[in-house]
Amino acid sequence: CFDRFGILWVNLIPQKGDFLGLDPLTLQITIKVNLENIVPTYRFMRQNLRLIALSMKDPVGFAGVFEGMTDVILFTPNFSKARHLRHPNMKNFPCIRKSANKFFVWSSDRVIYVYEMGNSIDQILLQGSFRVENNPIDVCASTEPGLIYVSQDDCTLRAYLGEKAEYELRLPKSKMTRLEQTFADSMLGPPMHTKSRPSFLLMAMHRF
Fold first, then answer.
1. What's the pLDDT at 193?
2. Which of 13, 84, 135, 177 could serve as a FRET partner for 62 with CA atoms 20 to 30 Å apart?
């Protein structure tokens, strides 16, 4: 997979190889994480099934899933520190995805755990979880609008509200000049908002 800096990450650890960061144009190796160098610290690394890069404005680290574990394990960029994300009610192998400013964990039990990304692995915080109608195939997110998109095995794509939201019933002040704000306050009164909508509310569905 690609990170936000354009590096193509290739995980060969399941084949007893290394974790490689490639230049997407030349396919030259720019970063190489040697399996044998991290196994003494993390013996479970030999059971790695998936490893993805996490980044915001700067690299945050990596997230991995491992055979026989429902924990998702986060690593710092140099693999000097690890943090377990535990999901005790998860009964099956977890899937992971980083999209926009969110990190998702889910499995075939149809519960999606939503984490808010941070600038370090310790700042990745659980926002909440929700159950979807059918088995998720993939999950991604957008920031504007703040939605979570879930493709499901009933041939549907469903969009859920990414966080609690309310909207002004008039043009936001940030998009008006000071003179326009004066007229709006005089003629319309104080800003009013729509009724607040809860996180993870189903907003739209399309069947293919």
1. 62
2. 135
Q: Which residue has the higher pLDDT, 144 or 75?
A: 75
pLDDT (tens digit per residue) in 187-196: 777 777 666 6
Tokens of 127: 């926002």
Describe the strand order of the beta sheet including 202-207 as a list of residue ranges. 136-142, 147-152, 156-161, 202-207
pLDDT per residue over 85-98, tens digit each? Answer: 999 888 888 999 99
3-state secondary structure the chain: CECCCCCEEEECHHHCCCEEEECCCCCCEEEEECHHHHCCCCHHHHHEEEEEEEECCCEEEEEEEECCCCCEEEECCCCCCEEEECCCCCCCCCEEEEECCEEEEECCCCEEEEEECCCCHHHCEEEEEEECCCCEEEEEEECCCCEEEEEECCCEEEEEECCCECCECCCCHHHCCHHHHHHHHHHHCCCCECCCECCCCEEEEEEC
> Are the CB atoms for 130 and 168 separated by under 8 Å?
no
- Partnered with residue 130 across adjacent β-strands are 112
Q: How much is the pLDDT for 2?
A: 85
Supply the pLDDT for residue 131: 95
Place of tokens 């979570």: 148
Q: Tokens representing 36?
A: 């044998």
In whole angstroms, how far apart are CA 125 and each of 51, 114, 129, 161? 19, 9, 12, 18
